[in-house]
Amino acid sequence: MDPKKYLEYWKELYKEDLLNDIMPFWLEHGLDRVNGGVYTCLTREGEIMDTTKSVWFQGRFGFTTAFAYNNVEKNPAFLEASKSCIDFIEAHCFDTDGHMYFEVMADGTPLRKRRYVFSEGFAAIAMSEYSIATGDKHYAERALEIFKSIIRMLETPGFLEAKYLDTMKSQGHSITMILVNTASRIRAAINDPILSERIDISIKKLRQYFMHPEFEALLECVGPEGEFIDNINGRLINPGHCIETAWFIMEEARHRNNKEMLDMALTILDWSWKWGWDDEFGGIINFRDCKGYPQQDYSQDMKFWWPQTEAIIATLYAYEATGDEKYLKMHRQISDWTYAHFPDREYGEWYGYLHRDGSVAQTAKGNIFKGPFHIARMMTQCYILCSRMLSE
User: Fold this and answer.
1) C-alpha–C-alpha distance, residues 40 and 375, integer Å
2) Do 79 and 65 touch, CB atoms closer than 8 A?
3) Which tens digit of pLDDT belongs to each residue from 363-381?
4) What secondary structure letter does DSSP report for 42?
């Protein structure tokens, strides 16, 4: 493999697919030009099948459009879409206690709240990226304000409903890992000590509590001090989440030029690839049990779109960081499989849900959880990585 030709090929493909497939699909079919924001419950052809709006995706699309504008092409339509989502968020998606909704109606009427603070995180990165695009510091300051509110909610006992009763104290990987990326994205627009401090706290927790060398795994749920919980939830490995965590940490390691942090990230990637890659059918599988027991989740052996995109980013990041062609081969392995199975060559965009053998489980292009984020972020992030490596 000629690395230079390989990177040039993928750089152009990421740009082509982002600008001529993924973004046009969502701008045409998903963008709400009446109420603002974006719809994500779309059929294969792009027909809206439910006008319920995912609050996560108001922030996610606000971010990905501005991220593409900043790094791939300064298309005014991207910036307009980002602003539409941000305006919708500010007008409709915050409750009076500062905690955001999870779902709202087309016009912003609240439908549902959940115990998570992911809506806040996605809103914050949308605003920080829009601030970078426009130079308007108000949005960066607002992003920082929301981030501080996230920390307040997480650290205020009883504000967020606990997943389990006190009979089983635990902590989750998801919020720990997402704060690394959320803080780093906001820091690109505005600096504040709380951002790097929170990244330090999260990475320390990931290393001390969630990484379990006895299983060569990063676990999704552990005790307050990292204790192994020997039940189905405690044994859960989510390879996609772990691989996503790996590239979040690689990004921070590059920012700080920190080899110890990089080694940690590469360890997580190597462990998670072993658990996640399906030797029989290819692709990254949804869930594993660290002791090899059957997983209870009905989708445990399926192939969702987003773990594949995270593996594409992480392997390319690892190659940039190390120059080790092992990671370039892994990138080719996951890219070849993903591009052979997920893109819809007839109607555009990607399927989201495949059976283990790679056959399509259902054809919808979006719902409350799938929409214009992981694929668009992958293409933009990998375009950045390929461009950077080629220039260096």
Assistant:
1) 14
2) yes
3) 999 999 999 999 999 999 9
4) E
Q: What string of DSSP letters covers 336-353?
A: HHHHHHSB-TTT-SB--E
The C-alpha atoms of residue 53 and residue 119 are separated, in whole angstroms, by 12
Cβ burial, residue 133 (10 Å; 0-12/13-18/19+): buried
User: Could you tell me whether strands 211-212 and 217-218 are parallel, antiparallel, or unpaired per DSSP bridges?
Assistant: antiparallel
375 with 350: CB under 8 angstroms? Answer: yes
Separation CA 371–CA 59 (nearest Å): 11
Alpha helices in 193-278 (DSSP H): 193-205, 239-256, 259-276
Rg of the chain, C-alpha, whole Å = 20
pTM summary value: 0.98
Model confidence pLDDT, tens digit, residues 21-71: 999 999 999 999 999 999 999 999 999 999 999 999 999 999 999 999 999
The pair of three-digit structure tokens given for residue 142, joined into one six-digit string: 């607002």
| Token reading at 350 | 């990607």
Residue from 106, 103, 102 nearest 115 by CA: 102
CA atoms of 156 and 75, how far apart (whole Å): 42
Residue type for position 57: F
Q: HSE on the CB side for 204, CA within 13 Å?
A: 7
Residue 138 neighbours by CB distance under 10 Å: 11
